[in-house]
Write a structure and sequence with these properties.
By secondary structure, this protein is an alpha+beta fold. It has a single domain (2-244), classed as Lipoprotein localisation LolA/LolB/LppX (outer membrane lipoprotein receptor (LolB), chain A, Clam), CATH 2.50.20. 20% of the residues lie in helices and 45% in strands. The chain has six helices and 14 strands.
Length: 247
């Protein structure tokens, strides 16, 4: 659970770093591909998906494969939503593992925080090329967690994306999800533009696989009512660090 959540958070942070147009709603549509891989003796098939990201100032929502991540900086909340099960987990920002753990588990919280610590290295390159209609510059991003997860990413970043306006506070908030990752947000501030193409090699959970995400379109328009709100009738599910340690 922790390593899965950490991977999802890193990918969302890379998006959050550059999404948003002041307070207008912007819809980013992206195509995503994940290679097949084996984990725990089982083969996970390759997967293609459409990713839709709505952004407006201090609100952001990412939809993919029946799940949503809704970030609300105005209330300092992150919601992890599963539409198939009609459940959600609410996480107060910034995360305080000691408050989320059962009473008397402070030492375990410290151990978990140490294991979740990540280091990030961002290296801008001189290489440029055109991705679709956007002129892009290359950045290499290497992420490693104390638990052993490694993500090597090539970002093709463009300032040509309509409505681009970096939201550094949003990126810093997403980084705060991982205790001890203050340096992460500082490194990500070096990325100036929107990632129109992201290619990653992931080593996590004993598996190695590649992912690819490419921007298809950008539209500035009003988001549907309730886009940044929890769906009505969904059941709350506690975010439990201890229960997730073995997943």
């Amino acid at each position: 659970m922790f390593r899965r959540a950490l991977l999802a958070t890193i990918l969302l942070t890379l998006t959050a770093l550059s999404a948003g147009t002041a307070w207008a709603d912007t819809l980013y549509t992206m195509k995503s591909h994940t290679d097949s891989f084996r984990v725990a003796g089982e083969t996970q098939p390759a997967k293609d998906a459409t990713v839709k990201i709505w952004a407006a100032g201090d609100r952001l929502r990412r939809d993919e494969d029946g799940q949503s991540m809704i970030l609300r900086l105005d209330t300092n909340r992150l919601y992890m939503v599963d539409h198939a099960d009609k459940t959600y987990s609410e996480i107060t920002l910034p995360i305080d593992l000691r408050k989320m753990m059962p009473k008397g588990s402070e030492a375990m919280a410290d151990q978990i925080a140490a294991g979740m610590k990540v280091t990030v290295q961002v290296t801008p390159r001189d290489e440029t090329k055109k991705i679709s209609q956007w002129n892009a510059k290359r950045y290499d991003v290497n992420v490693q967690s104390a638990m052993g997860m490694k993500i090597a990413t090539t970002l093709w970043v463009s300032k040509d994306v309509e409505g681009f306006a970096p939201l550094n506070k949003l990126a810093a908030t997403m980084a705060s999800l991982q205790p001890g990752s203050g340096e992460w947000s500082k490194q990500l501030e070096k990325i100036d533009g929107f990632p129109v193409l992201t290619e990653s090699r992931v080593d996590a959970l004993g598996a190695q696989f590649g992912t690819r995400e490419e921007l298809v379109s950008v539209e500035t328009k009003a988001a549907p009512s309730g886009t940044y709100d929890l769906p009505a009738g969904y059941k709350a599910q506690a975010y439990n660090p201890i229960a997730g340690m073995s997943q």
